[in-house]
Amino acid sequence: MDIDTTAVNQRRHRFGEHEQVWLFGYGSLIFKADFAYLERKPASIRGHVRRFWQGSHDHRGTPACPGRVVTLAPQAGATCAGMAYLIRPDVFDHLDHREKNGYLRFSTTLAFDDGSQAQGLVYIADPENAAYLGPATDSEIARQIAAAIGPSGRNRDYLTELADALSELGTTDLHVQALVACLPPDSSTDTTDITDSR
Ligand code: SIN
User: Is residue 116 part of a domain?
Assistant: First the structure.
């Protein structure tokens, strides 16, 4: 599947004199900050909701068994909470590669908890990209997540780590909570004692 957005993203923004840029993270960028940043703080953006509607063929699934990861869907009046990172523009080399499976960088306004605002960038996988999966029922999405695993680990861990990170941020995301509730039991943590007792 040829959907690598790296080259497109690298042409999308000219950072010019900007030595620092705010990045808004709402998915794995909240709980897996594997890049250098100068500062981070909770923030939110308006007009979008977080949804497990993007396919993952490279991180939490494979081309044969894609996982599902989050993207943002437009919704009037909604607010999406996440984490803002102040980064140097060269960090986008790493981020563009990490988010290459269909995500494009968009400009957005970040609102911080203290009431201040800043312009920044956010990665969104819109319905035009080839890895987009779109809506499904909670139980279908949870079943797909439970079955998928990729080079970055189990898809179910992406979901539960995101749920934990959001609760640490003190935010309630009903979509994420519903998917956690629908996850089939985790067989790898089955602690049944299989010792032969005879
Ligand atoms: C993000 O976290 O902001 C983008 C989606 C992801 O990488 O999980």
Answer: yes
